[in-house]
Amino acid sequence: MLVLYGPTVTGKTDLAIKLAQKYNGELISADSRQVYKGLDIGTGKVGFNSNVEKHDDYWIVDGVKINGFDLIGSGENFSVADFVKFASTTMIRIIEVNKLPIVVGGTGFYIKSYLYGIDTLGIPADLKLRQKLEELSVSHLYQKLLKIDPHRTRLMNDSDRQNPRRLIRAIEVLSSKSTIQPSNYPTIQNYLLIGLTAPNEYLYKRADKWLKIRLNHGLIKEVDKLIKQGISPDWLENLGLEYRWMTRYIQGKISLEEAKKRLQGDIHELIRRQKTFLNQFADIKLFDISKENWLKELEKTVSTWYNQQDGRI
């Protein structure tokens, strides 16, 4: 199995598609927002010049099947446990048809949980507790979590501290008396983990350019359509980034220029967090996309791994 991780705008999906074309592969998207139907432009599922066929729970892009797009409706919930289950069963199916599974995405927590496992996956949802917690404000949820585990709470980044779903899950896990059950999913052993990176300023410029392209291709209309379809503005705001600031603009809370400025800053912060998460992978092979020969070196690494006698799954 091949795994590609890196910050936004590093070209992970385009690269994964090219590698899939070369090595007869299928993609598994590891992105926490691309699982939702209707969130296409804001999540940057594919480039606007791609040849796309949309199907339920997968797309075919430039002749390559991408699993994990449009798994559930907007407004619903999708957890890391859901991703691990989906990715595991999808990987088995891909192997059974003699193709190479390629996991690609920018949600490092999904990839880490899939490769190494995570003990909280065995803790079930506590619906009664969730109903009580959902009545609390974000600040009250944060204070409640702070009382339960001050150290863990203070380590949370700003995005997690403002996300009620993540705060509720953290409280749920720390309050649970459940015994962790071993996973029934196959252990991932034979894989190559590739990380794409670049200096911050290089990525900031790419991100600013990509934001302008998406705005010109209907980002605001996409968010407005979701709201008119009855998707909760609060749910959209909790997604952060494009959906938070465009929702506030559409509701008249801020100007378009302010929304763009705040969104630009949040995307830059996301890039920094995603780069920091690269340190979570001890076995990752990094390639700097700002360097001249990075692609040639990457292709050589993949080819060597793939052509090893035990390099195929």
Automatic annotation (TrEMBL):
Its cofactor is Mg(2+). Keywords: ATP-binding, Magnesium, Nucleotide-binding, Transferase, tRNA processing. One of its GO terms (biological process) is tRNA modification. The keyword Zinc does not apply. It catalyses: adenosine(37) in tRNA + dimethylallyl diphosphate = N(6)-dimethylallyladenosine(37) in tRNA + diphosphate. Transmembrane segments: none annotated. It holds the Pfam family IPPT. Substrate binds at T8, V9, T10, G11, K12, T13. Belongs to the IPP transferase family. Monomer. Catalyzes the transfer of a dimethylallyl group onto the adenine at position 37 in tRNAs that read codons beginning with uridine, leading to the formation of N6-(dimethylallyl)adenosine (i(6)A). This is tRNA dimethylallyltransferase. The lineage of its organism: Bacteria, Candidatus Curtissiibacteriota.
